[in-house]
Sequence to fold (152 residues):
Amino acid sequence: MIKASALFGQGLGLDLGIQFSNSKASKKTKRNHLEEDIQAACVQWFRYQYPKLAMNLFAIPNALAFTGENRKAFFGKIARLKAMGLVKGVPDLFLAVARSGFSGLFIEMKKPGEKLSKEQSVVCQNFLSHGYDVIVCDSVDQFMNGTNRYLS
Fold:
């Protein structure tokens, strides 16, 4: 197991309780959880670094997984979520803090090397045109640099 504190470099002394598995899980399983693991580490770092803004950073759980459900139940839940406002392509995180003329910061998390989908690009351009900033991060370092830049 690799502790998340290893992601933040030497000297910070953080042990955030998040662990990334080096077990014999399949490569596909590791790939599927990598983005989630990076996002969790980013949120933990942010809450440690900016405790007064901790509640202002939150997840937008658009990428929901329904395991063990039959096809009818799955599509029924998706239909209900869409009726409740689920929008394909919305970024993973939102920082509800206005800075430098922006109303807030949307943050799309990606696996290393992964690109935005067409829907995500359209949604991000829409948010930019309405006064929000948007960053795309595929690592904790990118998240740290992007949020520090936004908040400075």
The longest strand covers residues 105-109. Confidence is low (pLDDT under 50) at residues 1-26. The CA atoms of residues 107 and 148 lie 13 Å apart. The two ends are 34 Å apart (CA to CA).
